[in-house]
Amino acid sequence: MHRIPRGNITFAILAGERALSVDGDLRAARYWFDAAYQDAELSGDPEQLARAALGLSGVWVHEHRTCADWERVRTRQCHALRLLDPRTPLALRLRARKAAEEDYRAGTHDAILRLLDRAREAGDPVALAETLSLAHNCLLGPEHGARRIGLSQELIGQAGLTGRRGDALMGLLLRTVDLFLEAAPKAERSLEELQSMLAAKEHRAIGFVVSAIKVMLSIRAGKFEEAETLAAVCAELGDATGDVDATGWYGWQLVAIRWLQGRGAELVPALSEMVHSPTLSALDNSYLASLAAAAAEAGDRRTAEGLLARLRGAGLPRSSTWMTSMYFMAEAAHLLRDTETAAYVHDALAPFAELPVIAGHGVTCLGSAHHPLGVASLTLGEADRAVEHLRAAVRQNLALHHWPATVLSRHRLGQALALKGGSGDEGPNVAREAAELGMVLPKAVTRPDETGGVCRCRRRGLHWLLELDGRSALVGHSVGMGYLATLMANPGQEIPAIDLAAGAETVKSAAGSEQPVLDEVARRTYKERLARLDSEIDELESMNDLERAATLRMEREWLLAELAAATGIGGRARPFAGTEERARIAVGKAIWRAVDRVAAVDPTIGEELRATVRTGARCCYQPR
Known about the structure:
Low-confidence stretches: 445-451, 504-518, 568-578
Shape: elongated
Helix content: 55-70%
Number of strands: 8
């Protein structure tokens, strides 16, 4: 390489430091510091060599992810450090950088905290400011929240002594992120202050993080389309800045959006590629956990079980994505009915129940940690604990203004209440709210000891709710639905048709009492609907909307046939005469009409009932 004059090395160093501290242009900084290092090595200038090696490390810890890149930078740092007087502030800065990089990869922080004490004693503002930032980057676990806030506040104070704008911005950014991680009410206020500083002059690296926080806030607001657009813009900004996290953060954002939308299974192909990316942090296991949940959602049990076993055996370090990993492990365990993983997640996550599940520097938010704790409790069949967690999750998600997470927690709370034997009607507007946000609610939960393939039926006012392996169908009341409900409440038991006709409450008693084919509530409901249909049909025909009018006429004819079959002379409710043959015919017809109505709502449940219900003189529901 051609040796250049010393003045040009100084220019390259200054250009690199400006790019790094003032502009936040990581790509430009690497270019200048790399050129400066090579030239300083040829000129034999140890101080310039050290400044170049230090600058190559970048703003964040662990900027160089591939093995080759990291070893190149580490070797240069060690070489420069050997040439320096160890008592100088520059040597202290290099030792702090080296210690932080090694601590980060090991998931520890002891070495950098020892050097932080030395930096405080040394009295050099620049060395202390840089070491504060490095230490903050190594205190990643949720247990370090208060300590991180203290470091970020101290960094803001040191910025007044260094005179470097980048230190002030970094301190305020880290404080803002810390406040979001702690669900502090002043987080948005701190973000506004940071954005005001950035409006005066751009800092690309910090602006990239701010753009990611804006994606998170859009996700919380339930503005999925806007969030997806902002995520793409954020990724472009990160890539232009030279931030190695640009791709990984974009992936986190899409995972959060798709999962909250109820489209987790769509993520499997992209996540299957992303988990092997060398650009991911050495401590990041969230992609493995989210792939496990997505695979479980897609029905790929083998992949999901293998990933969960790998994650449990890895002894997951407390990284900035650790809580996200716990969240998705809870979801995967729930879908697989994996009680071992559910117990593992609950024990690990319980101390941090009051925190939100946020990845990285405010990149994504999945809501309150009480939610995955509630899901884990559901998986374990601990209904009381699940209700407690999920009620807390609803409160905290409301406080976070995280509307999709609120809807999910309300939905799971309803399932937990149903598991306790209640109505499960907590949050009656959940389905409507989910539809407004463009969300598909997750599968209904079943007890861990229940066998799959059993259809269950519960009365909901004038409707019946049928559930089968996570599917559900809400069907209006009819005589046949009443019969079906009785059969499903007694799986495998043959019930005489004449007993069904006598009424569900007397199934085990001798046939003889007269039971109306339609009860009074159903008859009144049918008549009220007929009156509304007549008015609607007249209105549609006057508007020449013959197609919709014909559809309503078909419903009207069906209702008239039901009433005619159930009404005797003078409009009185028609009882069964008590003969087995008449009961066999009437009960069979009513049951199969009900099955047709179920199939119209959910074909899968309808087909299952056609295959497992038997009618005749004796009727039976025999699950497969």
